[in-house]
Specification:
With 313 residues, the protein is an alpha/beta fold. It has eleven helices and 14 strands. It has two domains: 4-223, Rossmann fold, CATH 3.40.50.300; 228-293, Alpha-Beta Plaits (2-Layer Sandwich), CATH 3.30.70.980. Strands 6-7-8-3-9-10 form a six-stranded mixed beta sheet, sandwiched between helices. Helix 3 (95-105) packs across helix 4 (110-123) and helix 4 runs antiparallel to helix 5 (139-150).
């Protein structure tokens, strides 16, 4: 495999008249944790399924592990790991039976199958529970088991489609520790998520919205360069009225809710005084205005709203 594990150029997927993925291009380097960040329905899962050889692209070209999309789908499937969004094991089988099934499906060498099973059980903290029916496990334990089964054949490229959806924060942290460890061993990982804290742990992120890739860079670069403006966090007594008051002002490039605060993007920090005066004239009590660095969520909201505005033109 070359230093580039995944190469995608102008990838498109249409279902009838609906375009699910629209002209996406990106490369993923060997050993990189590459994240897809976006809301449900953005096209993340459809893209992964094309890369895994489950869907043929409508147009565009690409290689996964050196194998061409569409033309060498079976070879791609044999050389990747894939953990789908919904739990993909069999609830009526025991833990050991599930592991053995996947080992056989991936044609794992029988001499190493026992060793791999012990490794998966240890990683999922199930060493003493291998005869437990899988359906009786908690969601977080199932996800750890599913990950182990998806990499039982030791692939060099792994696709994880929202692997921690619905999992508690502690289990998510453990799951990501495993992902980080895999990357240190040279395994390439493409993971989809809608959790901002998980996106921060990726080496690079592609921001996906309405089937389009609207940005791609490291989390640090996205936050430091993409917005290129001053961001204020504002605490007022009536946050929704504050949002409405500032939204149409000419100095506001973007105004959004961030929990119980307002985030206001302006071209110059000098507008702090004007922001305060505008809110107070509207009868609002301004408790705090503070210049802050943008979060990944700020960047994503800004870019999605910018994309939506351009689509309406």
């Amino acid at each position: 495999m070359s230093e580039t594990a995944i190469e995608i150029t102008n990838l498109v997927k249409k279902f009838g008249g609906f375009t699910a993925v629209n002209n996406i291009s990106f490369n993923v380097n060997k050993g990189e944790i590459f994240g897809f960040l976006g809301p449900n329905g953005a096209g993340k899962t459809t893209t992964i399924r094309m890369l895994c050889g489950l869907y043929d692209p409508t147009s565009g070209t690409g290689k996964v592990g050196g194998y061409q999309l569409g033309k060498e789908a079976q070879k791609i499937k044999q050389n990747i790991g894939y953990m789908c969004q919904k739990f993909c094991l069999y609830d009526d089988l025991t833990i050991a039976e599930n592991i053995d099934f996947y080992a056989g499906m991936y044609q794992t060498n029988r001499a190493t199958r026992r060793e791999q099973m012990e490794k998966i059980l240890r990683q999922a903290e199930l060493t003493e529970s291998k005869d437990t029916i899988t359906g009786n496990l908690s969601l977080s334990v199932k996800q750890h088991l599913a990950l182990g089964c998806s990499i039982i054949h030791e692939p060099k490229i792994v696709f994880l489609d929202e692997p921690t959806g619905g999992v508690d924060p502690i289990s998510r942290k453990k799951f990501w520790a495993i992902i980080k460890e895999m990357a240190t061993k040279g395994i390439t990982i493409l993971v989809t998520t809608h959790y901002m804290d998980e996106a921060e742990m990726c080496d690079r992120i592609a921001l996906i919205s309405a089937g389009e890739m609207i940005a791609c860079d490291s989390p640090a670069n996205l936050k430091s360069t993409l917005m290129g403006n001053t961001l204020f966090e504002i605490e007022v007594d009536q946050v929704m009225k504050g949002l409405e008051t500032l939204h149409s002002r000419p100095f506001s490039r973007d105004v959004s809710l961030y929990g119980v605060f307002l985030h206001v993007l302006v071209e110059d920090p000098k507008y702090e005084k004007e922001i305060r005066e505008t809110l107070e004239e509207a009868g609002l009590q301004v408790k705090r205005i503070e210049k802050i660095l943008p979060s990944l969520e700020d960047v994503f909201v800004f870019l999605v709203e910018k994309q939506q505005a351009e689509m309406k033109k």
